[in-house]
Write a structure and sequence with these properties.
With 146 residues, the chain is of the alpha/beta class. The protein contains 5 helices and 5 strands; from the N terminus they run H-E-E-H-H-E-E-H-E-H. The strands form 2 sheets. It has a 3-stranded parallel beta sheet. The longest helix has 19 residues.
Length: 146
């Protein structure tokens, strides 16, 4: 995610997604996963304003702990399903998919969108594979912006 400004683009898209959640008064959470760790950076709550502190520590490079990130997201979605069972729950996964892990689909996600940041001559195609296996939407950042 570090090459070609992909991490900066991902952070910009996160700001736009949180702005959309704020306008809709929808709850959102931000789970960062990269390198060797997973961390809840915000929420779940309705974002009333944007805070640079949520994004600054998010890094890239060194492999993606995708399974751990999806487990943490699944826990948050499970909790949300118990609190508000009629609420629709979306999971947006912004990643380059550079992971050898094949995580389990979070059961309580009603809709899943993979935003695939993988670039370069040699592509693994894991985001697209997971999207197909999970019945999720698969898009590139350019399609989301465009």
């Amino acid at each position: 995610m570090l090459a070609g400004q992909r991490l900066a683009l991902a952070k910009g898209l996160l700001v736009a997604l949180f702005d959309r959640a704020s306008s809709a008064r929808a709850e959102a959470a931000l789970v960062g996963f990269g390198g060797t760790g997973v961390e809840l950076r915000f929420g779940p709550a309705v974002p009333r304003w944007w805070n640079e502190r949520w994004l600054r520590p998010l890094g890239g490079g060194g492999g993606t702990p995708l399974a751990a990130g999806m487990r943490r997201a699944g826990q948050l979605l499970e909790r949300a399903a118990h609190r508000k069972p009629l609420q629709q729950r979306w999971l947006w996964v912004l990643t380059d998919g550079r992971s050898g892990e094949l995580p389990v689909r979070p059961a309580q996600a009603d809709q899943i969108v993979f935003v695939d940041f993988e670039r370069g001559a040699i592509r693994l195609g894991r985001c697209q594979q997971l999207a197909e296996a999970w019945g999720a939407m698969w898009i590139t950042p350019e399609e989301l912006i465009g």
